[in-house]
């Protein structure tokens, strides 16, 4: 795996903190018991806590997707090879085989794009 340009996980969040603008409005996402604040989130909006959980999961999600990408790429290659072999043998691939090839290629592309976005690509 590549060295990540962000603070390594795990991250935690807490909405019991009292920031300068008043209690319970903002909460913090942090590492090392609160010594390193990574971000603040708005605790007053309905999706505030869900956003915090997703942000806290980001390092683990990135690492999992990075480990899964070679498997997704292999699956896409296998599907493409199956369709190619069928065509070379004079046959016509079934709709299921074509859909498997398209789906697996799209999933591998989506994973690559998400990892690139997380690394700051496309800015």
If you had to describe this structure to a student in words, what would you say it looks like?
This protein has 123 residues and is α+β, with helices and mostly antiparallel strands. It has helices at residues 48-88, 95-118; strands spanning 12-14, 26-31, 36-42. A hairpin with a 4-residue loop joins strand 2 and strand 3. It is elongated, with a radius of gyration of 21 Å. The relative contact order is 0.13.
The percent range for helix content is 40-55%
Largest sheet: 3 strands, antiparallel
Structural class: alpha+beta
What does the oligomeric state look like here? single chain
N- and C-termini, Cα separation: 22 Å
Radius of gyration based on Cα positions: 21 Å
Strand coverage percent: 5-15%
Number of helices: 2
Short description:
This protein has helices at 48-88, 95-118, and strands at residues 12-14, 26-31, 36-42. It has 123 residues and is α+β, with helices and mostly antiparallel strands.
